[in-house]
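Record type: monomer structure entry
Structure origin: computed from sequence
Chain ID: A
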Amino acid sequence: MLYYRALYDGDHADIFPRAKSVGADKRMKWHRKSLREWEQKHETIQTNHPYIVANFSCLVAEVPADLINRALGNVSADIEQGSELEFVSAVVSASKVNEKIWMAVSQQQVDGAIAYRVRRNERGRVWFEWLFADRFLPHDDEQGADIAWIEEWGEEGSKKRFLRVERQMLTDTGLHVQQLAFKMESDTVNEKVDAQAYGEEHGVDVPEDVELVGVNELLCGSVPNEETLGSPRGRSALRNVDVLQEEINWTITRDSIVFEKHGKPKLAIPRALWDTVAGQNQKHYGQRFVRNADLEVVSYDEKNGAVPMYITWDAKTQHSFDHVTRLIRYMLAVSKTSLQAAGLEEAKGDSGVALLYLWIQSVIKAEAVQSKFDAALKAAIRKCIILENVLGGQNLEVKDPVVEWGDMLPRAESERDREEMEKYAAGVQSLETTVRRIHPDWSEKAIEDEIKKIQDEQAAAGTLNPTFAQPPRVTV
C-alpha cells in the first residue's frame, strides 16, 4: 500500500530505480599531478538534471472518485417522518457523508480497500469514520476484527511507540469490544500494557471494554476493490500502471536532458585556432587541451580567419512525444479509464446520451465502485442505529437507509428536466421525486413547499367550470 500511495502522490523519485541515476553522471576530468603533468580520472559528478514526473497514475484513482462524488445525492431514512428520519439525518451530518465520499473512493482505489467503523461519544453523538485499509484486520473465523494503529510519544529522537488495538468479537451474548495497548521497539511488538493506565499516562481517552448484548454483527467493515479469490481484501487500481508510468517519466526526462546538453549555443572555432591554443597548453602543462578560459582573448589570423561562431542544435523529438502518447493510452486502457478523462480526445457530446458513450469505460468502472459504496453507506448507517439502540436506550427500527444516486456525467438542465417531467407524466415517478431531482440543491422545506404549491394549483385547475370561466357574449 505504501508503494501505491507513493505512486499516487507523485513521489516517483523514491520508488523508481532509474530516477536515482538522473542526477549523477560519470565523466572524464583532468587533474593536475604536478606543475607540468596532468592526468585523466573518472569522476561521478552531480549534473543537476531533474527527474520529471508526469503523474497520470493519480488520474486512474481520481476519475471514479469524481464521477461518484458528483452522483451521490440525498441520504435519508426510508420513512417520511419520525425519530428514525431525524437520527439518520444527524448521522449523515456528523459523518459528513457527501464531503468525504471523494476522499474515501480515491483512497480505496489507491490502497485496494478502505475500512470504516461506528463511533459514539459521551454526548450521544453517533457517526461513522473512514479508516486506512491496513488498519483493519479481520479475523480468519469472520467472527471478529481488529482495528490497529501506532501512537508515538516523546521528543524527536527518543520517541516511544505503542500499538493500539480496538478488538471486536462476536460472542454468544452479543458483541465484545476490547481496548488493547502494546509497547513497541522499532517495528517489533513487545509486552502488553494496561490500556486505561496507558490512557491516563499520556492523556488519551481510551474507552472501557464493553459487552453489547444482543448485537449480532460487527460495528466496522471494509470496502474492497476488485477483490478475487486470491486477493479477498481487494487490489489497487494502480497495480498495472507503475511500469508504464515509469517509462513515461523516463522518456520525458531523457528529452529534457537532451535539450539541456544540446539546446544551449555552442562555441565553434576553426581547427587552426584550436591547434594554436592546444600547442600553447602542451608547452605549459604537457597536455594538448583547450579550456573556455583560453578563448576569452584570441589573436586574429587573416589567413585562417580565426573568428569563433556560436551554433545551435535542433532536436527532433516528435517520435518521443508520440511514444509518450502511446504509453498514456496503454495506461488508460489497462486501468479502464476513458481517453476523454485524460484530455487525449475531445469530450463533447450533442446530448447526455452521446456524452455517456464517450465516457462509457470510466462510467462502467465507476458504477461498479458505486455499488460497493452504496452497500457500505447503508451498512455503516444501519450499524449506527444498532449502536444507538444499545447505548442510547432508543428503540429505532433497524433497517438500511435510502441512498439516492444521480447522473455521473453533466447534462443540460433542459434535457434533464424534460426527462424527469416525462417520467412524472407517464406515472412511473412521484411528484416528490420529480421535484427533488429537478432541484437537487433545495432543502427539505423548500421541496415540501414546492410540492404543496403544485398540488394546490392542480386542485384549483381541476375545479374550474368551463361554462363559467368563459367571458359573457356581447352584441354590438
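Annotation 1: The first strand starts at residue 24 and ends at 32.
Annotation 2: Residues 274 and 290 are 7 Å apart (CA to CA).
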